[in-house]
Specification:
By secondary structure, this protein is of the alpha/beta class. The chain has one domain: Alanine racemase (TIM Barrel), CATH 3.20.20.10. The protein is built from 9 helices and 8 strands. The protein has an 8-stranded parallel sheet. Helix 3 links the parallel strand 2 and strand 3. It is globular and about 50 Å long.
Length: about 210
């Protein structure tokens, strides 16, 4: 077992002991090479996430045993290439991109991304748009499984609490919230899925220098 595989296995075991088996761990490989994804799979993490289309396609080819999540900004011109390889689209924030996904992957599993902070530069729909967006995505044939959010500046707890409440109101089972720096709070507030990068793999390499 090499150093990376051993380190990831220990990190996964520690986090599993902390959060339990009911919470899905998604290993986020942004900035890391395919060996990081393979190490996560070897440690028993089924779900692996990527923010960039080209990185997901390259890593999925190297680690096909993973269930790949796309969680970056969805560019409509990349959907056709991604569609056969994505298990869960985590960041659907509008009807237009949902229609494109449905056209290439009917009945695809998706999460509605909500802009938790309301800041204009953040991805996701506004809070009051979430419920109608769920309906519209279902109307075009997508399987809306839940909601996803990234905490903005300040205390993440009220943002996470509100997202969990929204999921309950909409009768959605998946609540994807919490990353390496705030997943403890997210779990306390009802997250069912956390997205972990540095908590599993350590510091992210500088851009252009993927950890292999």
């Amino acid at each position: 077992m090499d150093a990376l595989t051993d380190a990831v296995a220990r990190a996964v075991a520690e986090i599993r002991a902390e959060v339990g088996d009911a919470v899905t761990l998604v290993a986020v490989t942004k900035g890391f090479g395919p060996e990081a994804a393979q190490a996560a799979v070897d440690a028993g993490v089924t779900d692996v996430g990527e923010n960039y289309a080209q990185e997901l396609l390259a890593k999925e080819a190297a680690v096909p045993a993973a269930r790949w999540h796309f969680m970056g900004h969805v560019q409509r011109n990349k959907v056709a290439k991604l569609a056969p390889h994505v298990h869960l689209w985590q960041s659907v924030g509008g009807e237009d991109v949902g229609r494109v996904i449905a056209g290439h992957a009917p009945a695809a599993h998706v999460l509605v991304q909500v802009n938790l902070s309301g800041l204009p530069q953040r991805n996701g729909c506004d809070w009051d748009e979430a419920a109608p967006l769920v309906d519209r995505l279902r109307d075009v044939g997508l399987d809306v499984q839940g909601v996803m959010g990234v905490a903005g500046p300040g205390d993440p707890r009220p943002q996470f609490r509100r997202l969990r409440a929204l999921a309950v109101d909409l009768d959605l089972t998946v609540v994807s919230m919490g990353m390496s720096g705030d997943y403890h709070v997210a779990i306390e507030e009802g997250s069912t899925m956390v997205r972990l990068g540095t908590a599993l793999f350590g510091p992210r390499p500088e851009p252009g220098h993927l950890r292999r």
